Protein 1
Amino acid sequence: MIEATDALREAVLDEAITGLSSTPKTLSPWLFYDDAGSALFEQITELPEYYLTRAERSIFVARADEIIGSVRHPLTIAELGSGTASKTGLLLAAATRRQPEVLYQPIDVSASALEQAARSLPAAIPGVVVRPQIANYITNGYTIERPHDEGVLALYIGSSIGNFGRDEARSILRKLRKQVKNIGDAVLIGVDLAPNRDKTVERLIAAYDDAAGVTAAFNKNILARLNRELGADFDLDAFRHRAYWNPQDSRIEMHLQSLGAQTVTIDGRRIAFTPGESIHTENSYKFTERGLRELLHDSGYSSPEWFQDADHHFAVALAYPV
Ligand code: AVI
């Protein structure tokens, strides 16, 4: 059994009991990302069906110099929820073509991911200096440093904003706006696109319900985590992974559906499921250019410059503080 710290165990227990006692039942997506879940997410990003990561990378390959050239130089690059920063290298390399040294400030809850970024990036891209910050950018404060009054480019890529509802997304962007405040600063937001002429609903759903079952394992890991960390007794085979498109709210929803009537015990508490009852585990919002423009406008930014991949599946938006 993996040892969790007392505070983390309390947070997981609180989330599990609150979410599974509500109607409909929910579990918050932050529970996905223990070590096992983070490894499964890395596998998802390489699946043939999960086009998001490849599409965003293709935009950076084609447009990194243009994106970097739009921000005031010299610049520093910060990143919310950077993880191992695997795509960020393309932007950092473009920045080092314009200035000899670039300060990169990744902000993430995962110390191991930050360590990996701090080790690998300077070795791969001479001129990059990494200053990591361990913080949860939603619940904690964070500071983006601005040495020598440099311009700030803040990255919020990978469709991370898609996992939040509108109010929460706005508050994340407003909090960031307090630090992205000077003329020539910018934010770069990566969003997955809503179905369009070039993107079917089926394509979108397949990205969240792959043939190899990796996304199903990622979704079920949330129950496995409750078993590991709280001693719960979920039978993983008694739930099925479901992903569907909710057109009203423009989001993919992930659920775990109980195959029959069953009772699960968590920390001495019994949670009953009716046949077919589901636990809502994740929303992944999909954007139109107009929808993102409105969100940025409400959060204190300009209408963005818009960059898309060749298949029109994904976009990155570059916006300035107003
Ligand atoms: C992390 N996030 C942007 C992913 C997404 O696409 O919403 C999480 C994910 N869930 C299932 N597959 C990937």
Note: Residues 257 and 278 are 4 Å apart (CA to CA).
Protein 2
Amino acid sequence: MLNFDFYNPTQILFGKGRIADLNKVIPEQAHVMILFGGGSIKQNGVYDETIAALGKRQISEFSGIEPNPSYETLMQAVALVKEKKADFLLAVGGGSVIDGTKFIAAAALFDGEDPWSIMEKRGSNVSRALPFGSILTLPATGSEMNSGGVVTRKSINAKLAFSSRHCFPQFSILDPTKTYTLPVRQIGNGAVDAFVHVMEQYLTYPVNSPLQDRFAEGILQTLIEEGPKALANPQDYDVRANLMWCATMALNGLISTGVPQDWATHMIGHELTALHGIDHAQTLAIVLPSMLRIRKEAKRAKLLQFAERVWGLRDGDEDSRIDAAISRMQDYFEQMGVKTRLSDYALNASHIPAVISALETHRMVALGEKRDVTPDISRQILEMSL
Ligand code: NZQ
Ligand code: ZN
């Protein structure tokens, strides 16, 4: 096992009716800025419950944080936070709203350089942030219990990730009943994103970390079992609760302790979103199957473990077990309604060179757990995904 630091200060309030507990976790004197997206929280009652729970606290609000939140929009929110002198931020929504709130929290207290440098320096220059919490409405990203965020600068087609220990939510409220209104597309996206988060931290090479491996395999198996049930029976509380907790545990730092991490699929996926607006999870479903096929030799030991322990594949030679496991994974993504080929999103070979040059511009030229995923390998992966 590798050395590691594990730090996670986020309090989780999980279950039905927990929005009412906002009263216990936000100081009474706080001036709260509520941040949200395009309005789903007004249609499903989450907004009203939030306002009621905040009681007599001073409230301001900013709406319109879009999926794949843009720097342009977030800087408007930063200006409003400063104008209103809000001192506590409350993100209400999915990963985009929570990620956006992390950036706003850091940018509102950032002095000196241009706030875009937070993204260029991947958060290493963040030394403080406003306190914030979240109410999660879409289980997928894990943003509710981690310190990372992804922000898009539309004017230059750049989608970059940052993280800072100052950007953990103080608390996150996870009420599974608030996910009942998710469109089918977002149920599928959420399960696939969480699945791929686990794979980025699990499917590398062995370092004798049986506990982390079994945590990871447990999350994968639960996603495989529960995901289709959420599509078939959207109002099943237990299914939604299990999916929600899977997505949080998939990216809160626990399963990455002491193990190598990959993240090449995510980095290529971010470029596809920045250039073509494809949903985050859709990009992962396109890239990961080919990523594993092309890097089969370097990942052989873990692929065999994945085949046996996650998919129960024990018969046949090594290569056929590996191939079957990757195909089963791809079928699962499709079963969750997330298409797995570039051509499903109206992209063809002519679109690949721009993705490669974007990777080069963003210095994503030595990706993966062994830093051996060069632009040429990324190109082969995309060609295999056509
Ligand atoms: O904007 P509203 O109206 O709220 O609608 C949203 C949005 O259109 C809707 N939605 C959310 N909850 C709903 C709902 N609709 C009905 N009922 C509900 N309960 O869903 C749509 C998508 O929301 P979004 O927040 O964009 O989705 P997601 O949670 O998948 O977040 C994606 C973003 O997170 C980043 C991605 O890159 C992408 O920008 N990621 C963040 C990570 C992190 N912080 O650790 C890691 C991930 O790998 C990922 O990169
Ligand atoms: Zn992701």
Note: Residues 197 and 250 are 6 Å apart (CA to CA).
